[in-house]
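Researcher: Please translate sequence to structure tokens.
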Amino acid sequence: MSIEERAKAVGKNIQGKAQEAAGDLTGDQKQRLEGKGKQVEADAINKKEDVKDAVKDTIDKA
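Model: Translation complete:
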């Protein structure tokens, strides 16, 4: 598990939520969608790290 990658994902998720909220407040659809995109990217980073952890656990058990 890469702590740096997990931290990057948390930061990206927070950025995305803030950007989405700003888009909601201003009615800026582009801003809102970019914020959602950042949240999806953060989720993908976390899922990648989950897979890496599962592979490592499997190798360690073998």
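Researcher: Any highlights?
Model: The chain has a mean pLDDT of 95.
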